[in-house]
Amino acid sequence: MTASNSDPALAIGENTVVTVEFWIMSTDGEALDDSGGPVSFLYRGLDSLLPRLDDGLEGKTAGFEQTFHLEPEDAFGDYDPELLRVEPRSRFPEPLEVGMQFEGVPGDPDEDGTVVHPDDGEARDDALIFSVTDLTDDKVVLDANHPFAGMALRVRIKVLDVRPADPEEIEQGYADVDDESDEVLDAMIEARRNPGTLH
Questions:
Q1: How far apart are CA 189 and CA 199, in angstroms?
Q2: For the segment 36-49, what is each residue's pLDDT rounded down to a tens digit?
C-alpha cells in the first residue's frame, strides 16, 4: 500500500482495499484472538471479512471503530457434533499433544478427504482438519469444528486506511499486501467461503 493512493475521505465500498485491526471477544468480554496488527483485504473480495462485518463497514471511512455482535451463523457456524471423533491412540504418531492437528485421521482407510456437504448431499474434496482436544492412555478425542463454532462473538474493528484497489487486485479478487497472511484473517476468509464447515 502506498501513501499516494491513500484518501482519508474514501468510503469503503466496491473496489476498495481496506486496512483494519480487529479483536475477537466472547460475549462476556473475554479476549479470544486478534489480527496481530494491521491486515488489508479487498472489500467483498476473496480475502474479505465475514459478510456481516463487510455489511457493517460499507460506507465507512478511515478512523471508524465499532464493536459488532455476531451470532454463530454470522461467525464460525454452529457446533456440529458429527465432527467430533474418538479414535484409538495407536493410530497416531508419538509424541502426541493436545492442540496438534491432523488432516483426516492417520491410519483410517475410509478417510480419503471427501466430505458430504449437509445442505445438498454433494461430495466435496475438502479434507477435514482435526484438532486433538483430549488424550487418555489409549484414546484420542478429535474435533474438526472451529474453536469458536457455536459461539456468539463480539468483534471490535478499527479502520486504519481505505484506498482504491489496483486493477490487478480487482481482477484477482484479493489485495496485494507485503506482509504474510494472518491465521485469524485466513480463518475468517474460510468461514466466508464455507459457513459452518470452517476448520
A1: 11
A2: 999 999 999 998 88
Residue pLDDT, tens place only, 58-70? 999 999 999 999 9
What residues does 36 pair with on adjacent strands? none
Given the candidates 3.30.70.360, 3.40.50.2300, 1.10.472.10, 3.10.50.40, the CATH classification of the domain at 3-75+149-193 is: 3.10.50.40
Distance CA 63, CA 83 (A): 40
Count Cβ atoms below 10 Å from residue 42 Cβ, excluding itself: 22
Please state, in angstroms and rounded to a whole number, the distance separating the CA atoms of residues 55 and 75: 13
Say how far apart CA 35 and CA 125 lie, in whole Å: 29
| Per-position b or e across 145-169, b if 16+ CB within 10 A of its CB | bbebbbbebbbebbbbbbbebbeeb
Contact criterion met (CB below 8 Å) for 1 and 17: yes
Phi, psi (degrees; rounded to nearest 5) at 101: -125, 150
Q: Where are the alpha helices (DSSP H) in 33-88?
A: 51-57
**Predicted model pTM:** 0.70
184/50 Cα distance (integer angstroms):
12
Residue with cell 471511512: 61
